[in-house]
Amino acid sequence: MSEPVSSSPDITALGERADTMIRTLGSISAEPNRLVRSFLTPEHRAAADLIAKWMRAAKLDVSEDALGTVRGHWPGGSKKRLLIGSHIDTVIEGGLFDGPLGVIAGILAAEHFALAGRKLNFGLDVLAFGDEEGVRFPRTLASSMACAGIFDADRLDITDSDGITLRDAIVRYGKNPADIAAAAYTPDVAAAFVEVHIEQGPVLEYKNQPLGVVTSIAGQSYLNVEFIGEAGHAGTVPMMLRRDALAGSAEVILLAEKLARETKGEVVATVGLVRIPAAASNVIPGNVALIVDIRSGSDQARRRFVDHLKAEIRAVADRRELGLTMTQTRDVATTPCDPALQEAMTNAVRAGGGEPLLLASGAGHDGTAMARLCPIAMMFVRCRGGVSHNPAEYASPSDMGHAVAALIRFIENAKL
């Protein structure tokens, strides 16, 4: 059992500090009128330097690995470490809270122990990853994969939109790709990974609860569907003789929605991208491609849904006499959160007077990579309207203060 900390955390002060820090970090952007902060850019450098400054002020020992992950360390009574963190990169025109909240919550929680000079039975490492969103390079989680010891070297040859390889970007950032292997924690050191994150959805707000405990990070499948029909004149081809690829696609979009609703929340399905080559208002679409994004906290439910949807899509193509190609381009397994850590996180929230909801995360997180190294846990924080990846993204200082206080209690009582 860790030695208890004498003073209770001041929730109001923690929330106000978190809000100020998040807004200060949010001023670092590649563009003046919207938040854009990508991996291994000058803005990433400036944000990393600010995070390092805050870590030093919290009395943490600061280092940075070959992929730019900033690490703040508070030593403990053994070589084991509790890893706490999130990411500081953003999507294009992103919000202030997605990612930075988890880093700042980790700094404030570690500071609570460090400024008191209290040693736990384990060390604390606060991690500020730089590549969760995958905006600059088309493959995500490079920095957390390096920490987890699962970075694949072929990533070094992928390029950004300007043709710069990841290898060259690392060098331009002042790092050496040969040092990436040294970024990895070993399983005997990494006892667990914990992330505090805005929910990015509306459930906590709907249930009027400030905090939630995550049960799993949803698995994800992509179905790439292309219908081949026959283009024709919009005014001269009778309806009964048409082979309309867009009408078939529309049927699939509604079908995916209907089948997902029938799972009663177990699966979500979305079509957010439809391509119509040579589209014109007076031409029957002869070729349409779309992607169905399917997610679930249960791999079994997700795969069952995919098989069902595939069969229904084939039936649509047959009935409408459309050619069909269908490929599954993504199959990411569900990442479960550790049951013992879930219970500990739940107890930490309850100790502050709350009753956390248990819910799965439909979004991807660095925990997907870190789970390959050690057990993981996540705490969700209510966000207004469930809005994320958007400048309107918002979490209140009060909710953030409660989250940091719960994280402090979690750390204090952790048995690692």
Describe the model.
This protein has 416 residues and is an alpha/beta fold. The chain folds into two domains: 11-217 and 334-413, Zn peptidases (Aminopeptidase), CATH 3.40.630; 219-332, 2-Layer Sandwich (Alpha-Beta Plaits), CATH 3.30.70.360. It is built from eleven helices and 15 strands. The strands form three sheets. Strands 1, 2, 3, 4, 5, 6, 13, 14 and 15 form a nine-stranded mixed beta sheet that branches. It has a four-stranded antiparallel beta sheet with strand order 9-11-7-12, with helices on one face. Strands 8-10 form a two-stranded antiparallel ribbon. The protein is globular and about 80 Å long. The N and C termini lie close together (9 Å).
Beta percentage is 15-25%
What's the β-strand tally?
Answer: 15
Give the count of structural domains.
2
Structural class, from secondary structure content? alpha/beta
Order of helices and strands: HHEEEHEHHEHEEEHEEEHEEHEHEH
Q: In one word, what is the shape? A: globular
**Low-confidence runs of at least 5 consecutive residues:** 1-6
- The CATH architecture of the largest domain comes to 3-Layer(aba) Sandwich
Mean pLDDT: 96
Evaluate the radius of gyration.
23 Å
Briefly, what CATH class of the largest domain?
A: Alpha Beta
CATH T-level topology of the largest domain: Aminopeptidase
Amino-to-carboxy terminus distance: 9 Å
Q: Quaternary status of these chains?
A: single chain
Helical residue percent? 25-40%
If helices are DSSP runs of H or I spanning 4 or more residues, what is the number of helices?
11
What does the largest sheet look like?
9 strands, mixed
CATH superfamily of the largest domain: Zn peptidases
